[in-house]
C-alpha cells in the first residue's frame, strides 16, 4: 500500500508475543495520533511485510475503551465497565500507588514477603517494560515466577538435541529447496516465515511442506500437506528417520562425526515403520513415505519448528524427535538446511540491571505461572510449603482468559482475601477482578528495546506519541512503588532510555545512540556457528539423540511432570490426554489469525474477521454422527468444565479432532466460560508447561446434558 508522501514516519518494533518481532514504520499524524503501520522495507527479515492486525494498529491504540485513569473498585469483582460509577471510582495516581503499597505491606506483615506474587508475561516483549517487574520482586523478596505458559516444552525439546536455542539464519529459508513448516500456523502467527519460504518457491522452485493438526491458512499454501492427529508428531518424525536409514538417505559420515549414538538410533528405529506411524498419526503409509522421501532426498531442507506442536504433554519429546531428522539427513551442513526454532541464545543480553539480578534471593520460592489457578486456590503442592498468595501486581498478561484450568483461576481471583492491582491497557477480564486498576501505555507511547525470537535482530522501539489520559509506563509504576517502599537500587532511578543504553553497552552491542541511528542490529552468528559445523553446544560437540532429560535447559524447579517415563531416544511418548469412551475427541486450542493470545480481541475489526463469535471446527462426518448441525450451539466438556459455543463443519480436521481458534473473552461464550476452561495445567515433562492443544473432550448439541 502506498503512503501519503507528506506523512512523517517513525521507526519501531512490534511488541507483541510473536516470534517475528517485526521492524515497523509508523505513520505519525501528530504528537498523539498514528495512521497506518507498515513493515520496514529496510529490515531484511521483516522485508516490508507485517500482519494485518498490526497494520491497523490505530484502531487499537486509539480505542475509546482504553483505560485512561487509575480506578478503585467499589462494587463486586468482575464488572468490566469502567465507566460504571457504581462499580469503579476514578482516583489519582498517588492515591492508587499508596493503596497498592499499603495492600502489599499489610499482606507481607501477616504472611511474609512471599505472599506477594508479581505476575507478568508477554503482553509486551519489550525488555525494559516487561522484565523490570523482577527488580521490584527481588528487592522485596516477593515470590518469583517460573515462566512455563508458552515456551518450556518447545525450548527444552530443541535444546535437548543441539544444546542451545539457535540454528541456521531464518533468512536462509529463501535458499532452501524444501521448507518444512512444522507445528506453526505461520500465515497467522509469524507472517515473515511465509515471506522467505515463498521467495524460495518463486526463485528456486522450492517446495513448502506443512505439518499440522488441521488445514489452516498455512497448510492451504503447502505443496506437501501433512495433517496429523494432535500430539503424534514424534511418531511421524521417527518414521521419516526410519525411511532415511532404510533407503540410504541417512548421512552416515555426518552422523559419525556430529551425533552421539547413531547406531543405537538406527537399531531403535527399525520398528518405527511408516505402518507403525500411520496407526498413531492417522496419516496414510503413502503420505509418510512420500514426505520422508522428499526430506531424505533434499539436502537443503529447512525445518522451521513452531511452538504449537510442543504444547502437548509429550511436547518436549516431539520437538526433540523432529529436530533429530536434520541430524540423520545431515541437513545442518547445507546453506538453506538444518532445523530452527528460536534464536534466544545468540543475543547474550545482560538484563541484570533491568531485572535487579543482584537482589535475587534464591531461597524465595518459584511459583509456576501455568498453575495460577491451583496456587490461588491454595493447593499445598504448588505453594511449596510457603504462605498463600494474598497480594498480586499483574502486568502484561490476562490470566482470567489465558491461563489453563480456568474454573480454578476464577475461583482464586474471586477470593475476598486476595488484593490485586492490575496495570493494563484495557479492562481485561483479569483487570475486572482487581481492587486497583492502573492505565498502561502502549508500545508507541514509551521507550523500549526488543529482540527477535524468529530472527536475529535487536530493535529499538522509541516513544513516538504521547499516551492518552493518565497512562503510565510499567517502569514508572516500579519507580513509584519503589519510592513508597524506600527501595534503593540504581535500576529504579534510571530512565527507560538509560536502561536501554546500559543493556546495550553491557551486552557488547554498542550504545543507544548507535542503535537510534541504525534502528536495529543484525546479531546473526557466522555460518559455521549457526550450522554447528564446529560441533553442537555440548562439551563433545555431538547432537544428542539420547538427551539427559532432567538436566536439559534445567530451570530452578528441577524436573516436573512424568519425566521418569520419557523415552531415552526419539520416540512417540504416549503421555498425551488420549481420547476415551467418555471423551471421544481431542481438542486443540489453536491461535486465531486476527488475535494474539487475548490481545486484539477488543478491536471490532479483529472480532469481525474471526467471525464474530467463538467456534469449534468439527469434521462433517463426526458432526453427523453426533447430531450436530453446521452453526449449531454445542457444549464441549471434560473433567475440568464445560463450555458452550458454535460448531462449524470443516473437513480440514481429522476425524476425532476438534479445533477452536483464538482466545475469545469468556464473556463471548454463551455461559461465560472460555475455551481455557477445558485446558489443563498439569506440568509437561520434564520442565513444566501448559498442554493447550492436548485435551480430551466430549461434544454434544447444547440441549443435550453432558
Ligand atoms: S507478524 Fe507478529 S511481529 Fe509482525 S506485526 Fe504481526 S504480530 Fe507483530
Please specify the SSE layout and strand pairing.
Elements (H helix, E strand, L loop, with lengths): L7 E6 L9 E8 L2 E7 L12 H4 L2 H4 L9 E3 L14 E3 L2 H19 L4 E5 L6 H5 L1 H8 L3 E3 L5 H11 L15 E5 L3 H4 L1 H14 L2 E6 L11 E4 L5 H14 L5 H7 L3 H8 L4 H8 L3 H12 L4 E5 L9 H15 L8 E3 L11 H4 L10 E3 L3 H5 L3 H4 L7 E5 L3 H4 L3 H8 L5 E6 L11 E4 L8 E4 L5 E5 L12 H12 L4 H4 L2 H12 L4 H7 L1 E3 L4 H4 L54 E4 L15 H6 L5 E4 L1 H6 L7 E6 L2 E9 L7 E3 L35 E7 L5
Parallel strand pairs: 6-14, 7-13, 8-9, 8-11, 9-10, 11-12, 14-15, 15-16, 20-24, 21-23
Antiparallel strand pairs: 1-2, 2-3, 4-5, 4-16, 17-18, 18-19, 20-25, 21-24, 22-23, 22-25
Fold and architecture overview:
It is a single chain. The protein has about 700 residues and is α/β, with parallel strands linked by helices. The chain has a six-stranded mixed sheet with strand order 5-4-16-15-14-6, covered by helices on one side. A hairpin with a 2-residue loop joins β22 and β23. The protein is globular and about 70 Å long. The site of iron/sulfur cluster (SF4) has 12 residues, from loops. The site of iron/sulfur cluster has 12 residues, from loops.
Amino acid at each position: 500500500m502506498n503512503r501519503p508522501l507528506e506523512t512523517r514516519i517513525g521507526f519501531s518494533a512490534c511488541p507483541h508475543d510473536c516470534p517475528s518481532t517485526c521492524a515497523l514504520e509508523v505513520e505519525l499524524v501528530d504528537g498523539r495520533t498514528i495512521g497506518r503501520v507498515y513493515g520496514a522495507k529496510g529490515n531484511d527479515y521483516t522485508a516490508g511485510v507485517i500482519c494485518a492486525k498490526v497494520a491497523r494498529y490505530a484502531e487499537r491504540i486509539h480505542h475509546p475503551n482504553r483505560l485512561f485513569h487509575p480506578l478503585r473498585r467499589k462494587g463486586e469483582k468482575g464488572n468490566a465497565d469502567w465507566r460504571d460509577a457504581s462499580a469503579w471510582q476514578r482516583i489519582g495516581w498517588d492515591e492508587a500507588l499508596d493503596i497498592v503499597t499499603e495492600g502489599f505491606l499489610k499482606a507481607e506483615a501477616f504472611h511474609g514477603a512471599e505472599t506477594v506474587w508479581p505476575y507478568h508475561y508477554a503482553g509486551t516483549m519489550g525488555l525494559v517494560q516487561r522484565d523490570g517487574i523482577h527488580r521490584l520482586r527481588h528487592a522485596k523478596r516477593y515470590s518469583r515466577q517460573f515462566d512455563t505458559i508458552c515456551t518450556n516444552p518447545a525450548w527444552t525439546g530443541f535444546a535437548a538435541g543441539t544444546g542451545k536455542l539457535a540454528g541456521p539464519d531464518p533468512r536462509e529459508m529463501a535458499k532452501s529447496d524444501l521448507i518444512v513448516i512444522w507445528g506453526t500456523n505461520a500465515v497467522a502467527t509469524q507472517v515473515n516465515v511465509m515471506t522467505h519460504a515463498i521467495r524460495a518457491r518463486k526463485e528456486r522452485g522450492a517446495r513448502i511442506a506443512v505439518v499440522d493438526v488441521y488445514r489452516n491458512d498455512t497448510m492451504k499454501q503447502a505443496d506437501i500437506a501433512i495433517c496429523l492427529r494432535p500430539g503424534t508428531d514424534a511418531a511421524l518424525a521417527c518414521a521419516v528417520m526410519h525411511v532415511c536409514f532404510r533407503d540410504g538417505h541417512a548421512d552416515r559420515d555426518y552422523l559419525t562425526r556430529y551425533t552421539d549414538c547413531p547406531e543405537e538410533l538406527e537399531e531403535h528405529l527399525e520398528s518405527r515403520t511408516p505402518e507403525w506411524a500411520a496407526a498413531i498419526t492417522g496419516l496414510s503409509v503413502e503420505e509418510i513415505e512420500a514426505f520422508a522421501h522428499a526430506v531424505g532426498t533434499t539436502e537443503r531442507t529447512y525445518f522451521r519448528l513452531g511452538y504449537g506442536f510442543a504444547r502437548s504433554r509429550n511436547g518436549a519429546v516431539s520437538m526433540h524427535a523432529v529436530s533429530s531428522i536434520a541430524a540423520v539427513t545431515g541437513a545442518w551442513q547445507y546453506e538453506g538446511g538444518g532445523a530452527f526454532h528460536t534464536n534466544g541464545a545468540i543475543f547474550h543480553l545482560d538484563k541484570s540491571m533491568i531485572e535487579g539480578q543482584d537482589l535475587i534471593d534464591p531461597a524465595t520460592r518459584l511459583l509456576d505461572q501455568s498453575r495460577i489457578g491451583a496456587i490461588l486456590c491454595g493447593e499445598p503442592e504448588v505453594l511449596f510449603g510457603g504462605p498463600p498468595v494474598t497480594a498480586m501486581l499483574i502486568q502484561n498478561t490476562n490470566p482470567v482468559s489465558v491461563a489453563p484450568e480456568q474454573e480454578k483461576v476464577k475461583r482464586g481471583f474471586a477470593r475476598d482475601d486476595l488484593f490485586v492491582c492490575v496495570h493494563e491497557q484495557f479492562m481485561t477480564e483479569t483487570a475486572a477482578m482487581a481492587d486497583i486498576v492502573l492505565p498502561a501505555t502502549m508500545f508507541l507511547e514509551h521507550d523500549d528495546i526488543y529482540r527477535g525470537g524468529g530472527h536475529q535482530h535487536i530493535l529499538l522501539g522509541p516513544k513516538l506519541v504521547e499516551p492518552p489520559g493518565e497512562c503510565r509506563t510499567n517502569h514508572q509504576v516500579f519507580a513509584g512503588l519503589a519510592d513508597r517502599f524506600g527501595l534503593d537500587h540504581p535500576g529504579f532511578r534510571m530512565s527507560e532510555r538509560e536502561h536501554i543504553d546500559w543493556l546495550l553497552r553491557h551486552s557488547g552491542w554498542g550504545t543507544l545512540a548507535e542503535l537510534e541511528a541504525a534502528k536495529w542490529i543484525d546479531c546473526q552468528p557466522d555460518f559455521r556457528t549457526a550450522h554447528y559445523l564446529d560441533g553442537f553446544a555440548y562439551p563433545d560437540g555431538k547432537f544428542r539423540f539420547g538427551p539427559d532429560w532432567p538436566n536439559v535447559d534445567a530451570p530452578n524447579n528441577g524436573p516436573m511432570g512424568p519425566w521418569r517415563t520419557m523415552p531415552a531416544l526419539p520416540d512417540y511418548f504416549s503421555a498425551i490426554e488420549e481420547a476415551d469412551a467418555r471423551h471421544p475427541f481431542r481438542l486443540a486450542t489453536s491461535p486465531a489469525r486476527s488475535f494474539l493470545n487475548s490481545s486484539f480481541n477488543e478491536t471490532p475489526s479483529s472480532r469481525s474477521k474471526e467471525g464474530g463469535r467463538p467456534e469449534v471446527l468439527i469434521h462433517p462426518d463426526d458432526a453427523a454422527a453426533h447430531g450436530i448441525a453446521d452453526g449449531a450451539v454445542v457444549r464441549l466438556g471434560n473433567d475440568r468444565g464445560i463450555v458452550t459455543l458454535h460448531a462449524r463443519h470443516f473437513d480440514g480436521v481429522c476425524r476425532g479432532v476438534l479445533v477452536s481458534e483464538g482466545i475469545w473473552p469468556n464473556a463471548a461464550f454463551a455461559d461465560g466460560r472460555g475455551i481455557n476452561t477445558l485446558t489443563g495445567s498439569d506440568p509437561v515433562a520434564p520442565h513444566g508447561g501448559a498442554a493447550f492443544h492436548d485435551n480430551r473432550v466430549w461434544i454434544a448439541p447444547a440441549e443435550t446434558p453432558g
